[in-house]
Amino acid sequence: MSSTQISTSLAVSENGFLFLPTTGETFTVNETGRFILRRLQEGREQQEIISSLIDEFDVEPVDAQRDVLDFIGQLRQYHLTDTQ
Predict the structure, then answer these.
(1) DSSP string computed for 10-58
(2) Which of 42, 68, 72, 75 is 20 to 30 A away from residue 9, measured at CA?
(3) HSE (CB half, 13 Å, CA atoms) of 80?
(4) What is the pLDDT of residue 82?
């Protein structure tokens, strides 16, 4: 698995509010989404994020992997990554 680059123009608040100034679009993410997004912004690899998610939220590996891959898929769908 590889690293996903979050759009550098994406503004992220501490409470999970996302703003894309280039289009004016806004989004909200839950606690898990914020957790994944922060690690992506730090440049972490997907497998490292999955492991962190398992440790932090005490979830099954298969669920953590699905959550990370689904979340990254949604980020790409809404053009919130620099790697489409």
Answers:
(1) -EE-TTSEEEETTTTEEEE--HHHHHHHHHHHTT--HHHHHHHHHHHH-
(2) 68
(3) 22
(4) 81
Residue 66 CA, chain-centre distance (Å), reads 12
Cα 47 → chain centroid? 13
* Token duo for residue 51: 């492991």
What's the pTM?
Answer: 0.88
pLDDT tens, the chain, 84 aa long: 467 888 888 898 989 999 999 889 999 999 999 999 999 999 999 999 999 999 999 999 999 999 999 999 999 998 898 865
Please give the single-letter amino acid code of residue 57: F
Q: What Å distances lie between residue 78 and 43, 48, 57, 59, 83, CA to CA?
A: 19, 23, 26, 26, 12
